[in-house]
Write a structure and sequence with these properties.
By secondary structure, this protein is an alpha/beta fold. The protein has an eight-stranded mixed sheet with strand order 3-2-1-4-5-6-7-8, with helices on both faces. Helix 8 crosses helix 13 and helix 9 crosses helix 10. The chain is elongated and about 70 Å long.
Length: 276
């Protein structure tokens, strides 16, 4: 059943498209009910043709919707706030009777307190989704601002559930959640690419090496989750005394892979806090 509210989208970059495409394709959001705003006329025309939705450079028409997905860069938040204030009266008129207009922010690090200060009159939600939403295998963490009632919460959960698993989290946990789940795919992609490079160096053709690296990563994740294994258990399952895996693991420990990944997640966590 389609969502009844008109949805405004401010900023239509990779993350916004990763969320919107599955929702539009599933019919949960009607294309005619989406009003998106981008910075340039060229981008507006291209994205309108690509997605089949209304896209313009007029942010007011997006901010006038009762529900707005805010997906600009964190550094741009101050610049987009005035248009939201100007369109507030229209958003209030379009909102569900007795409820405030809703703002769903996917901006890394930008806190609920800052959102509520910049966008008064709107109930605010922080959402941290990740790009596997494109194949409906995403993870989204949600933290709720003041004034978001249970009916609205279920509505938002339903939107994000269409593209993966949804978790309610205390706001302080959103930064490490982002570092693990949103930055994590880039870290894992680098691991997959490096493993494939090693296989090419060992003699495999690159297309086959890439296919095998991807399938190995996907199969390992499925095994860990399907059998509820601790990663250390799976490591021990495939490591024979003096075998090939033991030799490879020894090299990874010597190179500091474990420490490098820990520090990568911590660095991404800290950067998320700085952006806020």
């Amino acid at each position: 059943m389609p969502w009844s509210d008109t949805v405004g989208v401010v900023g239509l970059g990779r993350m916004a498209r990763a969320l919107l495409l599955p929702l539009l394709d599933s019919g949960l959001l009607e294309r005619s009910a989406v009003r998106a705003a981008v910075a340039s006329e060229a981008s507006a025309r291209r994205l309108s043709d690509e997605l089949g939705i209304q896209v313009s450079t007029d942010a007011a028409q997006a901010w006038a919707a009762p529900v707005v997905l805010l997906a600009v860069k964190p550094q741009q938040i101050e610049a987009v706030a005035p248009a939201a204030t100007e369109a507030l009266a229209e958003a209030l008129a379009a909102a569900t009777p007795g409820g405030e207009p809703l703002l769903i922010s996917v901006l890394a690090g930008v806190t609920l307190a800052r959102l509520q200060a910049l966008f008064p009159g709107r109930a605010c939600v922080r959402a941290v989704p990740n790009t596997p939403a494109l194949v409906r295998a995403g993870l989204t963490g949600l933290s709720w601002g003041e004034g978001v009632g249970e009916a609205r919460r279920e509505q938002v959960r339903r939107l994000f559930a269409e593209v993966g698993e949804v978790l309610d989290l205390p706001e302080p946990q959103l930064d490490p959640f982002l570092a693990l789940t949103s930055s994590g795919p880039a870290f894992l992609a680098l691991v997959a690419e490096s493993m494939a490079d090693g296989a090419v160096a060992g003699g495999l053709p690159r297309p086959l090496a890439m296919h095998l690296a991807h399938r190995t990563m996907a199969g390992t994740a499925a095994l860990l989750q399907g059998q509820e294994l601790h990663p250390g258990q799976l490591k021990d399952m495939v490591t024979s005394p003096a075998g090939t895996t033991a030799a490879g693991l020894r090299q990874l420990e010597r190179a500091g892979l474990r420490s490098a990944l820990i520090e990568a997640v911590l660095a991404a966590t800290e950067r998320s806090r700085q952006l806020g």
